[in-house]
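Hey, can you fold this one?
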Amino acid sequence: MKEEDKLKLLKISWELHDQVETAYLNHQAKQSDDDWLEKQRFLLADMALHLLQTAIKPGELKLEKLRDNLHAILTISDQFLPEADLKKATKKLYD
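Sure. Predicted structure:
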């Protein structure tokens, strides 16, 4: 993929990020609310967009950012897949 194509994708991803982040911030659910997981889906999408940005950003892949992106995604996903024990897996990212 050409660098200019990557830059176009990055621009689109930031536009999407702004929309997803706004939806997350505007969602009124608290952790004890019935629709908490719905709010967490927005946060998961937000973190997925950050992973996309880290992966396609021109230049060398920043491993620390990659670890942070994966940590966030696994931590949030743990709420949806508790039997997978994803939170435990995050500890290995920083060994």
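Residues 3-94 form one domain. Let me know if you want another pass with a different chain boundary.
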